[in-house]
Amino acid sequence: MASTEDAVIYQDVFEASPDPIMIHDADTGTVVRANQAAGALLGCTPDDIVGMHVGEFSPPGFSTADANDLIAEAATSGSAQVEWATEGPDSTDQLVEVTLKRAALGDETRVVAFIHDVTSIRERERKHAEQSEQLHTLMGNLPVVVFTLDPDGVFTYSAGKGLEGLGMEPGDLEGTSVFETYSEYPDIITAVEKALDGEEVRVTQEVDNLVFETWYRPVFDDSGQLKQVVSVARDITALKRREERVEALSDATNELLYSRTETAAADTVTQIAQRIVDQPLAAIWSHDSGDDTLYPIGATAKATDFAGVETAADLPPMGPDSHENRIFHTSEPTVIEDYQELSNPSAPAMPMRTLLCLPLDDQGMLCIGSETVTSFDGDERFLLEILASTAAAALERIERETRLKSKQAELERSNEALQQFAYIASHDLQEPLRMVSSYVDLLDSEYGDDLDEEAAEYMAFAVDGAHRMQEMVDALLRYSRVETKAGDFEETDPEAVLDRTLDALQMRIEEVDATITAESLPRVDADSNQVGQVFQNLLENAIEYATEAGIEPRIEVSAEEDDGMVTFTVSDNGPGIPAADREEVFDIFHRAGAHDTEGTGIGLAVCQRIVLRHDGRIWVEPSDDGAIFKFTLPAVTEVNGDD
């Protein structure tokens, strides 16, 4: 028996408890005692509760019989528990947990009901459950694999949609050793060993046909010991495939830059197209505007095998009335969903299904086919359209270069024929001219005394004509030898070349009291003998024309280097060149203005031919005082100097 003092203490505890407490008669289930908190729960006084049966204040659906059964269970077994949804005094819903405990109070058996408000607890539990479900749903749908390893490398957790690609379900890995499961993947084993040693690891790994970007992070306990390794593996197979496609397109661009034939470009385009879409049936046709037909110029080996032909050229052409030809003229990329349903295909016997047609501007068309009805995703279409644009530009460039080479070859043949003609004509004219000159001299020496004044004049005209013809033939020979007798290009000092030229002209310079000055002249990459010819022709012209005009010749030579070329300037104080003659002055046998000086009019033509051989140009600058000639030659670069 408890003492009176203990009874008082229990009474105080009973009344002061913040949780409602009721004491029930074990036989009848009625309340025999209730504390203040119980009264507050039911919205009445504790005395009002006494004598009530549980069924009177229990929630709907919980009868008096149910309450008696629960109380009887507690009285028999010692305890029982139930959770109720009730309405509080302020009419708010709340959840209470009722715990029934058997108690001996004096000689009587009683059942004490401890009532605890669990509304907030259950709300927290509900939210936690929702969050857990959300996390589970998230983990189940993310394209990743999430797993944990214990310190021995055993999987303790595995989840994530990425497991589907590996043919697994969440949890399949749990309990297995990573060292056994992935023993054939040394890169995975190496990464795990580093992580188990405490190192955070990020690595790209291949598993079967998939590529994963995996992050391993060690987790330590408070004592610094490894607790587990948490890892996330992201499937980047599609990303790597896109990277490979872009790389393939970049390769195509680079290769097409160096393709010199239509066939080579077509082979490159079809191979790259196959890599971009993993479709082996790729072929390319070139458009002939003459008969408005597309002719095959390239195809993958799979495409020719599929068509049952030996080479790409054996594929069927796409005539003017074919469906494919009409697509070409629309200039729009088009997908033929099912080739077998076309009314007028170019190859009706071909068992093709889906066909993607990509017109290449005016050049032709690229076609990617499939043996089954399929589709091309957005990335594939985008990359293929870029490839088609690149291919069109390459084919246009090749066509342009082919025409240019053909024209260049034609010009070279024509130029060679002209040079040969000039050389042969001038060489073959030498002998008859010498014969004419010799016999005229014989006539003059033997019969000159017998000729009258008029006959002697005729004889002089004949001699002069023969001499002039000889000079023109010699000039024509010099002109033709600019190419045929040319020397190699080498580092040349124009100052030294000019000095040698002045030495050759020294007598004439002194004779007319000419003054020639020169500034510093940069070195050039040229044929030094031909550079000397240019200087000599320009200086001789300047001296002769100034002397003819009664002017004491004053000539200046200068040069400046810019952008890999040296521009030379030869200016004089002579009569100059009329504006109307500045364009034609370089024509062969052309002489500007009216002059009494002797000459063939071929010197400037030779200068132009020499300068053009050096990829330079020569021209006359407008001037009101004398003549100004400018010409360019390639400067000596560091590479040229080293060579």
TrEMBL record:
Reaction(s) catalysed by this chain's protein: ATP + protein L-histidine = ADP + protein N-phospho-L-histidine
What are the entry keywords? Kinase, Phosphoprotein, Transferase
Please provide, alphabetically and separated by semicolons, the GO molecular function terms listed in this UniProt record.
phosphorelay sensor kinase activity
SUPFAM superfamilies recorded for this chain?
Answer: ATPase domain of HSP90 chaperone/DNA topoisomerase II/histidine kinase (SSF55874), GAF domain-like (SSF55781), Homodimeric domain of signal transducing histidine kinase (SSF47384), PYP-like sensor domain (PAS domain) (SSF55785)
Residue ranges of domain PAS in the record: 6-60
- PAC domain residues are 197-248
Record flagged with keyword DNA-binding: no
Gene3D superfamilies xrefs: 1.10.287.130, 3.30.450.40, Histidine kinase-like ATPase, C-terminal domain, PAS domain
Q: Does the keyword Manganese apply?
A: no
Which CDD domains does the entry link to?
HATPase (cd00075), HisKA (cd00082), PAS (cd00130)
Question: Could you tell me the EC number(s) of this protein?
Answer: 2.7.13.3
Histidine kinase domain location: 424-637
Concerning InterPro entries, the annotation shows: GAF, GAF-like_dom_sf, HATPase_C_sf, HATPase_dom, His_kinase_dom, HisK_dim/P_dom, HisK_dim/P_sf, PAS
Please state what the protein is called. histidine kinase
